Amino acid sequence: MAGPDKDPGEDHFTYVTWIMADARTRREAILASRQWTIKRKDGKPLIIGVNYDTFDVGRGAEYEFVQVTTPPNDLIAKITDRMLLLLNDDDLDLWRGAIRAPLEDVKALIKTYEFNPDEWDISIEDPNKKPPRPRKPKSKSPNRPEPQGDLF
Protein backbone atom coordinates (compact mmCIF):
# COMPACT_ATOMS: atom_id res chain seq x y z
CA MET A 1 0.00 0.00 0.00
CA ALA A 2 1.47 3.33 -0.96
CA GLY A 3 1.87 6.06 1.61
CA PRO A 4 0.79 9.67 1.28
CA ASP A 5 4.10 10.64 -0.38
CA LYS A 6 3.70 8.22 -3.25
CA ASP A 7 2.02 8.79 -6.56
CA PRO A 8 -1.61 7.65 -6.21
CA GLY A 9 -1.28 5.98 -9.61
CA GLU A 10 0.93 3.37 -7.95
CA ASP A 11 -1.99 2.03 -5.90
CA HIS A 12 -3.41 -0.65 -8.15
CA PHE A 13 -3.32 -4.34 -8.70
CA THR A 14 -3.06 -6.34 -11.88
CA TYR A 15 -4.54 -9.53 -13.17
CA VAL A 16 -2.88 -11.49 -15.92
CA THR A 17 -5.30 -13.58 -17.92
CA TRP A 18 -4.25 -16.57 -19.96
CA ILE A 19 -6.03 -17.13 -23.24
CA MET A 20 -5.55 -20.83 -23.90
CA ALA A 21 -8.32 -21.50 -26.43
CA ASP A 22 -6.17 -20.85 -29.50
CA ALA A 23 -2.77 -21.28 -27.88
CA ARG A 24 -0.96 -24.43 -28.93
CA THR A 25 2.09 -23.88 -26.74
CA ARG A 26 2.89 -22.19 -23.46
CA ARG A 27 4.85 -19.55 -25.38
CA GLU A 28 1.79 -18.73 -27.50
CA ALA A 29 -0.28 -18.53 -24.31
CA ILE A 30 2.17 -16.07 -22.78
CA LEU A 31 2.14 -13.95 -25.92
CA ALA A 32 -1.69 -13.99 -25.97
CA SER A 33 -2.04 -13.06 -22.28
CA ARG A 34 -3.35 -9.70 -21.25
CA GLN A 35 -2.42 -7.72 -18.17
CA TRP A 36 -5.21 -5.70 -16.59
CA THR A 37 -4.75 -2.77 -14.22
CA ILE A 38 -7.43 -1.94 -11.67
CA LYS A 39 -7.21 1.18 -9.52
CA ARG A 40 -9.40 3.65 -7.69
CA LYS A 41 -10.10 6.92 -9.49
CA ASP A 42 -9.83 8.90 -6.24
CA GLY A 43 -6.21 7.76 -5.77
CA LYS A 44 -6.84 6.15 -2.37
CA PRO A 45 -4.85 2.98 -1.71
CA LEU A 46 -6.42 -0.45 -1.98
CA ILE A 47 -6.75 -2.46 1.21
CA ILE A 48 -6.18 -6.12 0.35
CA GLY A 49 -7.17 -8.79 2.86
CA VAL A 50 -4.32 -11.15 3.78
CA ASN A 51 -3.52 -13.64 6.52
CA TYR A 52 -0.06 -13.62 8.08
CA ASP A 53 1.21 -16.06 10.67
CA THR A 54 4.45 -17.26 12.22
CA PHE A 55 4.75 -20.81 13.52
CA ASP A 56 7.37 -23.40 14.42
CA VAL A 57 7.15 -27.03 13.36
CA GLY A 58 10.55 -27.99 14.78
CA ARG A 59 12.83 -26.38 12.19
CA GLY A 60 12.68 -22.82 13.45
CA ALA A 61 10.31 -20.03 12.61
CA GLU A 62 8.18 -20.46 9.49
CA TYR A 63 6.34 -17.52 7.97
CA GLU A 64 3.05 -17.73 6.12
CA PHE A 65 1.48 -14.96 4.04
CA VAL A 66 -1.70 -15.72 2.12
CA GLN A 67 -3.80 -13.37 0.01
CA VAL A 68 -7.49 -13.96 0.58
CA THR A 69 -9.65 -14.29 -2.54
CA THR A 70 -13.39 -14.23 -3.17
CA PRO A 71 -15.65 -15.05 -6.11
CA PRO A 72 -15.38 -12.26 -8.70
CA ASN A 73 -17.77 -9.38 -9.14
CA ASP A 74 -19.33 -8.82 -12.57
CA LEU A 75 -16.40 -6.72 -13.87
CA ILE A 76 -13.66 -9.09 -12.66
CA ALA A 77 -15.61 -12.15 -13.88
CA LYS A 78 -14.83 -10.98 -17.43
CA ILE A 79 -11.12 -11.38 -16.59
CA THR A 80 -10.79 -14.28 -14.14
CA ASP A 81 -12.72 -16.57 -11.79
CA ARG A 82 -11.39 -15.14 -8.47
CA MET A 83 -10.57 -11.70 -7.10
CA LEU A 84 -8.59 -10.36 -4.17
CA LEU A 85 -10.48 -9.58 -0.98
CA LEU A 86 -10.80 -5.81 -0.91
CA LEU A 87 -11.68 -4.13 2.38
CA ASN A 88 -13.08 -0.71 3.20
CA ASP A 89 -11.31 1.68 5.58
CA ASP A 90 -13.99 0.97 8.18
CA ASP A 91 -13.24 -2.79 8.05
CA LEU A 92 -9.52 -2.54 8.75
CA ASP A 93 -9.54 -2.59 12.57
CA LEU A 94 -11.87 -5.59 12.65
CA TRP A 95 -9.77 -7.45 10.03
CA ARG A 96 -6.49 -6.76 11.89
CA GLY A 97 -7.94 -7.86 15.22
CA ALA A 98 -7.70 -4.40 16.80
CA ILE A 99 -11.37 -4.77 17.74
CA ARG A 100 -12.45 -7.80 19.77
CA ALA A 101 -15.31 -9.41 17.90
CA PRO A 102 -16.73 -12.87 17.27
CA LEU A 103 -15.06 -14.82 14.47
CA GLU A 104 -18.34 -14.70 12.53
CA ASP A 105 -17.99 -10.90 12.29
CA VAL A 106 -14.52 -11.24 10.77
CA LYS A 107 -15.65 -13.96 8.37
CA ALA A 108 -18.52 -11.69 7.26
CA LEU A 109 -15.90 -9.34 5.77
CA ILE A 110 -14.90 -12.06 3.29
CA LYS A 111 -17.27 -11.23 0.49
CA THR A 112 -17.17 -10.10 -3.11
CA TYR A 113 -16.41 -6.39 -3.44
CA GLU A 114 -18.73 -4.74 -5.94
CA PHE A 115 -17.15 -2.03 -8.08
CA ASN A 116 -18.96 1.17 -8.92
CA PRO A 117 -17.62 1.84 -12.45
CA ASP A 118 -17.65 5.58 -11.70
CA GLU A 119 -15.09 5.00 -8.91
CA TRP A 120 -12.70 2.52 -10.57
CA ASP A 121 -10.40 2.47 -13.62
CA ILE A 122 -10.13 -0.96 -15.20
CA SER A 123 -8.03 -1.26 -18.34
CA ILE A 124 -5.82 -3.58 -20.35
CA GLU A 125 -2.20 -2.49 -20.17
CA ASP A 126 -0.45 -1.67 -23.42
CA PRO A 127 1.86 -4.64 -24.17
CA ASN A 128 4.24 -2.29 -26.02
CA LYS A 129 4.67 0.00 -23.01
CA LYS A 130 8.16 -0.30 -21.63
CA PRO A 131 8.56 -0.82 -17.88
CA PRO A 132 10.16 2.01 -15.90
CA ARG A 133 13.94 2.10 -16.06
CA PRO A 134 15.67 0.87 -12.91
CA ARG A 135 17.21 3.55 -10.77
CA LYS A 136 20.97 3.81 -10.66
CA PRO A 137 22.35 2.64 -7.31
CA LYS A 138 23.39 5.49 -5.07
CA SER A 139 27.01 5.66 -4.10
CA LYS A 140 27.88 4.59 -0.58
CA SER A 141 28.57 7.38 1.82
CA PRO A 142 29.70 7.21 5.44
CA ASN A 143 26.41 8.82 6.58
CA ARG A 144 24.18 6.40 4.70
CA PRO A 145 22.91 3.41 6.71
CA GLU A 146 23.41 -0.12 5.43
CA PRO A 147 20.40 -1.57 3.57
CA GLN A 148 18.01 -3.73 5.58
CA GLY A 149 18.68 -7.44 5.24
CA ASP A 150 16.20 -10.19 4.48
CA LEU A 151 12.97 -9.84 6.44
CA PHE A 152 12.66 -13.59 6.78
Care to give the gist of this entry?
By secondary structure, the chain is of the alpha+beta class. It has one domain: hypothetical protein yedk fold (Alpha-Beta Complex), CATH 3.90.1680.10.
Provide an overview of this structure.
Helix content is 14%, strand content 26%. The protein is an alpha+beta fold and 152 residues long. The chain has one domain (8-124): hypothetical protein yedk fold (Alpha-Beta Complex), CATH 3.90.1680.10. A three-stranded antiparallel beta sheet has the order 1-2-9, with no helix packed on it. It has a two-stranded antiparallel ribbon with strand order 3-8. The longest helix is centred in the N-terminal third of the chain and has 7 residues, at 26-32. The protein is extended and about 45 Å long. 5% of the residues are buried. Residues 1-23 have low confidence and may be disordered.
Give a topology summary.
Elements: E1 12-17, H1 26-32, E2 34-40, E3 47-48, E4 50-56, E5 61-67, E6 69-70, H2 74-77, E7 83-84, E8 86-87, H3 92-96, H4 103-107, E9 120-124
